[in-house]
């Protein structure tokens, strides 16, 4: 598959981009390089390769989920100028 200057110009028009001829030539060349790289990657034989979730053999070490702090809600709310139903009451900022 190959990208042409006309297709790059067409896509540029759809995207409402104004590209001069040198920019179109450069974009066409770069896009064709990307497509050539994809073709090279698709030519590699990967039949005996297992899919990987991550390239390194890393495992996530998780700690136990334990409560480490006490619930101090009432003590913290005692410092608030106003509280209601276990929550801070603040002035309305959006009408």
TrEMBL record:
Residues 76-95 are annotated as: Disordered. InterPro entries: Asp/Glu-ADT_sf_sub_c (IPR036113), GatC (IPR003837). It catalyses: L-glutamyl-tRNA(Gln) + L-glutamine + ATP + H2O = L-glutaminyl-tRNA(Gln) + L-glutamate + ADP + phosphate + H(+); L-aspartyl-tRNA(Asn) + L-glutamine + ATP + H2O = L-asparaginyl-tRNA(Asn) + L-glutamate + ADP + phosphate + 2 H(+). Keywords: ATP-binding, Ligase, Nucleotide-binding, Protein biosynthesis, Transferase. It holds the Pfam family GatC. It is an enzyme of class 6 (ligase). GO terms for molecular function: asparaginyl-tRNA synthase (glutamine-hydrolyzing) activity; ATP binding; glutaminyl-tRNA synthase (glutamine-hydrolyzing) activity; transferase activity. It comes from the Bacteria. Its EC number is 6.3.5.-. One of its GO terms (biological process) is glutaminyl-tRNAGln biosynthesis via transamidation. Allows the formation of correctly charged Asn-tRNA(Asn) or Gln-tRNA(Gln) through the transamidation of misacylated Asp-tRNA(Asn) or Glu-tRNA(Gln) in organisms which lack either or both of asparaginyl-tRNA or glutaminyl-tRNA synthetases. The reaction takes place in the presence of glutamine and ATP through an activated phospho-Asp-tRNA(Asn) or phospho-Glu-tRNA(Gln). Belongs to the GatC family. Heterotrimer of A, B and C subunits. This is Aspartyl/glutamyl-tRNA(Asn/Gln) amidotransferase subunit C. It comes from Umboniibacter marinipuniceus. The lineage of its organism: Bacteria, Pseudomonadati, Pseudomonadota, Gammaproteobacteria, Cellvibrionales.
């Amino acid at each position: 598959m190959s990208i042409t200057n006309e297709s790059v110009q067409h896509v540029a028009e759809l995207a409402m981009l104004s590209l001069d001829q040198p920019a179109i030539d450069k974009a066409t060349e770069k896009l064709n390089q990307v497509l050539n790289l994809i073709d090279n990657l698709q030519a590699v034989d990967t039949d005996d390769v297992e899919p990987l979730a991550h390239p390194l053999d890393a495992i996530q070490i998780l700690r136990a989920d334990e409560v480490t702090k006490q619930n101090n809600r009432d003590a913290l709310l005692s410092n608030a100028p106003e509280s209601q139903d276990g929550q801070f009451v603040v002035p309305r900022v959006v009408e």
